[in-house]
Design brief:
By secondary structure, this protein is α/β, with parallel strands linked by helices. It has six helices and five strands. Strands 3-2-1-4-5 form a five-stranded parallel sheet.
Length: about 180
């Protein structure tokens, strides 16, 4: 995933990266090892503290405790904004325009996520557990029917794309 991120965005040791919703710092550690300067935002105080512990030995990285929508950017701009399984927590009416404004003119918005897939011939655990999911998290009827892995690999349209960015960004690239 990080090799694709570097290839698509041109990210290198001169890049400034903003990570939205860094959690415990898993993705942030990978970004820092690429040599980038990373500013991470995490609204949870305990998660932010854990992330700070995990990156204590790295330079060019900081973790700030804040919601993205309320964060004081102090006039900074970034080459890449990364949100790994976190962008869905951001209010889209504020988030998309704010992300656009925080990026350099040729900057990249990189919402990273995963897709559950199924393979032909393998047990369909999701179909077999759909009733449990519906009981505890109702309202997702597609839960038991994830797409086939080959279908996901052959599309450039994405699966479960984030909300419409209001035309602020170019076409989506899926890897």
């Amino acid at each position: 995933m990080f090799a694709d991120l570097v290839t698509v965005t041109g990210m290198d040791e001169r890049s400034s990266v903003l990570e939205v919703g860094c959690g415990t710092g898993q993705v942030m550690r990978s970004l820092v090892t690429l040599g980038c300067s990373v500013t991470a935002i995490e609204p949870g105080e305990e998660l932010a503290a854990l992330a700070r512990q995990r990156i204590a030995t790295f330079r060019n990285v900081e973790v700030e405790t804040s919601m993205f929508e309320e964060w004081d950017d102090r006039g900074r701009h970034f080459g890449v904004l990364v949100a790994a399984s976190s962008w869905h927590w951001v209010d889209p009416s504020i988030g998309w325009p704010r992300a656009h404004d925080l990026l350099h003119p040729a900057g990249w918005m990189a919402p990273l996520d995963n897709v559950v897939v199924r393979r032909p011939g393998e047990p369909e655990v999701y179909a077999e557990t759909a009733d449990v999911h519906e009981r505890f998290c109702p309202g997702n009827p597609g839960w038991g029917h994830p797409p086939l892995e080959d279908d996901v690999r052959t599309t450039d349209e994405g699966w479960g794309l984030v909300d419409d960015s209001g035309g602020l960004f170019g076409p989506t690239i899926v890897r």
